[in-house]
Amino acid sequence: MEIDAWVWWLIGAAALGIGLVITAMPELGMLAVGAVAAAAVAGIFGGEAVVQVVSFVVVSTALIAVVRPIANRHRAQRPQLATGIEALKGKQAVVLERVDASGGRIKLAGEVWSARSLDTDRAYEVGQEVDVVDIEGATAIVM
Predict the structure, then answer these.
(1) Distance from C-alpha of 141 to C-alpha of 103, rounded to nearest angstrom
(2) β-strands 111-117, 103-108: how paired?
(3) Which of 52, 83, 94, 120 is the most buried (most CB within 10 A)?
């Protein structure tokens, strides 16, 4: 009993798909799609082995050339939604206890935070609004 070429291409696609799941390498998924394209050429069009290999190479290469740069660009982008201490930077706070270079207290995002002045010569009095420049540990740096 002889197995058709398209079955071998599908077995190869399945193996590449398993490799994708195990290693999380997206290139293997693109190669798997190329193998499915070669299986389609073999099964539907009855193409020769050379045509099948060429279709595999063309589809795989095209996917890697087009999809990979897009994926890398998305991976390099910073998240649009700031969370944690990054979300607090740039916010305004109200001074609860005098804030100077040695310390004080502010109300920031509904919570009481320890704070200190960015400028060592500057002090902020109770009730003043200040801008949070940075967060160091549990201390807000304000100006």
Answers:
(1) 9
(2) antiparallel
(3) 52
**Hunting for tokens 């290999």 — which residue is that?**
53
Q: Could you tell me whether strands 92-100 and 103-108 are parallel, antiparallel, or unpaired per DSSP bridges?
A: antiparallel
DSSP 53: H
Backbone φ and ψ of 61, nearest 5°: -65, -40
- Phi/psi of residue 108, each to 5°? -130, 120
Burial of 26 (0-12, 13-18, 19+ CB in 10 A): middle
pTM: 0.55
Residue type, 84: G
Residues 6+ apart with CB under 8 A from 102: 116
Cα 36-70-85 angle, rounded to 5 deg: 130
pLDDT, tens only, 5-62: 999 999 999 999 999 999 989 999 999 999 999 999 999 988 899 999 999 999 999 9
| pLDDT the model gives residue 81 | 80
d(CA 132, CA 94): 10
Structure tokens, 46 = 């009855």
